[in-house]
Amino acid sequence: MQDLIESARQAQKLAYAPYSQYFVGAAILTNSGKVFRGSNIENASYGATICAERAAITNMIMGGERDIRALAVVTEDCGFPCGICLQTINEFTSDPNLCEIVVPSKSGFQIRTLQELAPYLWRSELVKKTK
Ligand SMILES: [Zn+2]
């Protein structure tokens, strides 16, 4: 997991956060072993801002992958992903009980499963699909 955190740290250096100065980097490890990174990208409209986690997911999708095994996120205060990002991670993991969210801490890192962080997220099987 230390390698994934380091990858997230590299992504954090690329963050575009001129308004909040809150620089975030994320790195995804897919079940096939590939790593995809993202950083937060702010916008003057605020609403158009995208979190690092969802930027990494966008990169993962464009890389042809759709199954998140673990996601590391690096911030200045060891923050975990926001609710929108947890919901988006949930869309792209085959098992929320195995999907690990990794955040650095003073003693190393913390790991929580997606299920632990957000046990009542919407799953695609709950949504009625139309043809
Ligand atoms: Zn977020």
The molecules bound to the chains, other than polymers, are:
zinc ion
Structural class: alpha+beta
User: How many beta strands in the DSSP annotation?
Assistant: 5
Distance between the termini: 41 Å
Taken from the alpha-carbon principal axes, the silhouette is globular
Helix-strand sequence = HEEHEHEEH
Going by CATH, the architecture would be 3-Layer(aba) Sandwich
Q: Unreliable segments (pLDDT under 50, ≥5 consecutive)?
A: none
Strand order of the largest sheet: 2-1-3-4-5
Question: What is the assigned CATH homologous superfamily?
Answer: Cytidine Deaminase, domain 2
Tell me about the biggest sheet? 5 strands, mixed
| CATH top level assignment | Alpha Beta
β-strand amount: 15-25%
Helix content: 25-40%
Per DSSP, the total helix count is 4
The total tally of domains equals 1
Taking all residues together, what is the mean pLDDT? 95
CATH topology: Cytidine Deaminase, domain 2
Overview of the structural elements:
This protein has a 5-stranded mixed sheet. It has a single domain, classed as Cytidine Deaminase, domain 2, CATH 3.40.140.10. It has 4 helices and 5 strands. It is an alpha+beta fold and 131 residues long. Helices cover 27% and strands 23% of the residues. Bound molecules: zinc ion. The site of zinc ion has 6 residues, from helix 3. Zinc ion binds next to helix 3.
Keywords:
five-stranded mixed β-sheet, 131 residues, Cytidine Deaminase, domain 2, 23% strand, binds zinc ion, alpha+beta
